[in-house]
Amino acid sequence: MTSPLIADPDLHASASHRNMIDHLTAPLQAGAAESAITVSPIGMVELPTATREPLLLAAPLRALEGVAWAVTVELPGGSSTQLEFAAGTEAGAYLPLYRPPADPETGIVAPFSVRLRLVEVLASERRPVPAEQIASNLDVRLVEGVTGRMLYLLGAEKQRIRRQARELALVRTLAGAHGDALDRIGAELGVPRFFDTIRFRDPTDEERPSIFARFRFGERTFGPGRGGEITADARREPDEEYRRRLAIYKPWLYPSLGHVEATLNELLGEIGVSARALVTDESQPAAAAVHLVGVEARTARPGPPPALDLAGRAGFHEYARRTTLIWPGDEAVANGIHNARYLPSATTEQVNLLRRRLRAGYTFPAQAAIAPMLAQALDRVGRCRRALGEAGAWAVTRCQDATGGSRYELGLGADLTPPAAAELTRLANRLTAGEITLPTAPSDVEPDPAETAALLASARPRPPGEDPDGAWLLEACGLRTVHRVRTDLVYVSHIPTFGLAISGPSVTTVGTPITLEARYHATGEPGSHVLLVRGLQEAGREWTELGHGAWTVLEPAAGRDAWDAAVATGEATAAILSHVGLPVVTDPDDVAARLRGLPAELIATFRLPELESQRVTAGRPEAINDLRDLLNVLGGQGFSSALLLVVDTDEVVVVVGGIALPLAGLNLAERSATQFRWYAVRIWPNQGVSPAVSEIGYLGARSDFNPGRWGLYAIVALGQIRSQFGGTEAYEFTVDLPEGTVLSLLQYEYLMNLLAHLHPMGTRVNTWSIRQRHVDLDGGGTPEPVPPHISRTYRQYRRPRFRGATATGPNS
Known about the structure:
Elements: H1 16-22, H2 26-29, E1 33-37, E2 44-47, E3 51-52, E4 54-60, E5 68-74, E6 80-85, E7 95-98, E8 108-109, E9 112-121, E10 126-129, E11 138-144, H3 146-155, H4 157-170, H5 180-189, E12 196-200, E13 230-234, H6 239-249, H7 257-270, E14 278-280, E15 287-296, H8 313-323, H9 332-340, H10 345-361, E16 362-363, H11 372-387, E17 394-398, E18 413-416, H12 421-433, H13 449-458, H14 471-476, E19 481-486, E20 489-493, E21 500-503, E22 507-509, E23 514-520, H15 530-545, E24 552-553, H16 556-565, H17 571-580, H18 588-596, E25 603-607, H19 610-618, H20 622-636, E26 641-648, E27 651-657, E28 674-684, E29 702-705, E30 711-721, H21 722-725, E31 732-736, E32 743-744, H22 745-758, E33 764-766, H23 768-773, E34 775-776
Helix pairs in contact: 1-3, 5-6, 10-11, 11-13, 15-20, 16-18, 17-20, 19-20
């Protein structure tokens, strides 16, 4: 701890006798001589020659911060005395060790020696200092002469005065305060001292785990508690624990996430958590899909039809093709459409050059049209390929297609033939070797050599076996989506879709609702869901790597048969499930009926291996670790919930989903793995649009669109899927700990209060993984999932203050 008395004009500080000796006139200085005395490795102070009116002094060589010293002096003749240096004593504060009796006539003292023993006195222990270390801690001085002894006596009180001044200054700081001084700092910060401590009581079979009847967050009041509750025992919080809690609130600013992480790990170290917390704020991208729906009036509209009224959707598609989309082909229709656009001649020339470059790098179907930004991204890919020595054209097989659904109808995406592995290898090798050919000046073929060079510099080549689609190059050039639709087709787009598509009717009438569905299609498997396909594959691989047998994923029909065959969970199995946080099924028929009402594409069923199934049904202790491994691998792949069903003594099936499941809720994550937001925008006609009209459901994988007006609507679905990309959501950061790190209940309480104070305003902190995998509730040394009903049950350090209220507690 650093002393607050940094600037001290007194050079001799507490050694006031030395200051007075320095100011003596020459005749008097002979009566006040000071000299240094060596302490031997065995703690002996020896004066081998006679001395005149001697006085032995001792002082610490360093300031005593948070520790006191007791110096025992073994005197000649066998007696001893003790000298105490209180905590806060500064370096150079000399106290008298020994004044031997002098001859009354001459004042001479014969040679003598004393032995020193040094003990450090802490709050709860006394630590002897080895004799060989006394010399490096204690400074011993000899003052001779009556004048010297008198001057020391005159200034002896200065050591106590300066120590008291240091103590008064230190108690105004968090590091030096204690007792009532800490309580006053706590009152200033709104953080009172605790007079209780919390613990978790395991529930008995007769006790229902519910805490809210006797727990009030605002007043921090605990009742006697029942099993499954967080209960409290009386205990006055020691100063050191209180000081650690106050340290959370003492700093003022946390300007960056890096500072948050550094502060978090620094303060966690204060409570004995050596593992570094992992803070992640890499937001996962949102995917977008657009689907056009034409809405007809219930009765014929009066008057002539509007100019665009060609069955709504068809008219808009034709309008977009003629006015907005890029036609790469060199054919009469394409040239005529581009020449007819009312654009500056310079812009028309730039578009024609873009079309020419696209034809040089790709082959397109007849009368193909694509969105302008997609055309520019494909052009960048073509320029990079040419710079790396690939002159062959890449086949584009599908562009804007009015009947192609949300992926193709607006020209926002296109299908490419997958690149050959040999070509990807050549591109990667040339880029790695720096074999890049670019013109020194812009040309029609290469309008911006600097941009192409920058794009290639940002690309990170990967081998074809790892990246068979060449996404490392396509994404570097601005294609946000590179998605394998089939084994022979790659879908690309300049907007992030990542397999998201909207399916449902394209035409309806006013007042007739239609159901639309948004789905993330798995790579190479149209109609499947990426969460289930990819998630179960990765989770199954991790499960077997942990030493378990492979599970069997059931087809949808077989999964429904297993639901119907499920039986009520037995007592032995129920005991196992309670340890890992899985629900107990008492009415399997009701559960099966509720599972049938969920979106089939968001749930899957698999059968556990026979060995693990038998352990679960028999209630064997090994099943607890089996199920913990199971939930960890499923949660790590982004699944939101899991439900275990017993079919027979050797058959157990697990239902997993990206949404909440019956009884289980969201027991693998705090939110659904897939999230969708829907918007309905009336794009034609645009007269009389009222933003207050709500015509579509806002959330969910499925949404009902019930138009209240005729016209053309753009239905937009924004989706996120955490398992595919990892990371966090917008305005969120996650905090996790390395595998195997275990927090006690009090450490968990400290961490949660720390995060409540550290997180920036408007930002959510995701601590789900910590609560599921790193908290030891019962003190057994093994982490258990924190039950949802007590996950937020901990003492709030900082309390709200109101007029006339105090934040301090009783000093008892």
